[in-house]
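ARCHIVE CARD
Drawer: 12
Card no.: 0347
Subject: one protein chain, sequence and derived structure
Cross-reference: see card 0346
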Amino acid sequence: MKSTPVLGHGLLAALAVTALSLVLGCGPAKQKAEATTMNAGAEVVPVETALVERQALAVTKSYIGSLEGEAQANIVAKISERVTAIHSSVGQSVAKGRTIISLDKSGATSQYFQAEANYKNAGKNLERMKALLAEGAISQQLLDATQTAFDVAKANFEAARSAVELVSPISGVITALNVNLGDLSQPGAVLATVADIHRMKVIFSINEADVMQITPGQSVEIQSEGGSARRVQGRVVQISRSADVRSRSFEIKALFPNTADQWYRPGMFCKVMVRISPRDNALVVPAAAILSDGLTSKVYKVVDGRAISQPVVTGISDGSHVEILQGLQDQERVVTTGATNLRDSSLVAVAPALHGQAADKKE
């Protein structure tokens, strides 16, 4: 009965010694391995990289432009009279010289009928004088005076008629009618617009910093909300030599062929894409590699497994790539992802997949 407690105490002591031996024998190795793992995780930063390369680079900028026909003319009222007839509608093709709008010929400001009467009378007098000259009844001088009177009467009549019969000065399509039947026209008011829309003109403004990069004949792309099928290529035909005094911008005009269905019409707005400052062999890095504080820029380049902070001078950017003017050499490797976790000379682990792709690309 008394031997049982002694045996129990001995067993407990043996178990305690065994446990202590295990702790003393295995503890340091395990702790060392854990410490090594923790240190490695703290010191080696996983990153993604890309090569510094040479390639063509250009900045494409977007501007909003307004459209006109290549040839476009406004039909303007010369006198104040009632509109008595409108002979065409918007979208209708018209030939040069066709009457578009008629005004009241008997109105208070119209001299149509008076000028017509004078013209007809001058014509009759001229015919009589020619007959009398043939018979030798009058001198050539008198006939010449009659001819002059006829020419003046004809010019007055044509002027009076043009004031009440408003014709299209060009062949094209009526793109706007700004009056209704019975309206009272006002001198100088644009009553209608006619344009040749087979070729269109886009007018847009560009700032003084970019205008030096635009040259006559340079290609532009015109886009609209009509979708990619509506995109057309055009060329710059005119660059203003002076800036607008208010906006300090320069007016640019470009011509482009209209689509087969003549989608583009005068008065519409469209987007004009212009390539600024093209570079044929620029040294570039992905835009994600650039770290900037607003005043200076830098990258982290990978050298022997470490990230080295490198100040750079940047040039143009197309949004995805940035031109490097100073600070890097071709085929150097820079960090594109993970740079915010780096300090100068940090150890880095390059992502294997992207590293392999970059190596393949380099080869």
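Annotation on reverse: Helices lie at 3-43, 112-134, 140-164, 208-211, 352-362. The two ends are 86 Å apart (CA to CA).
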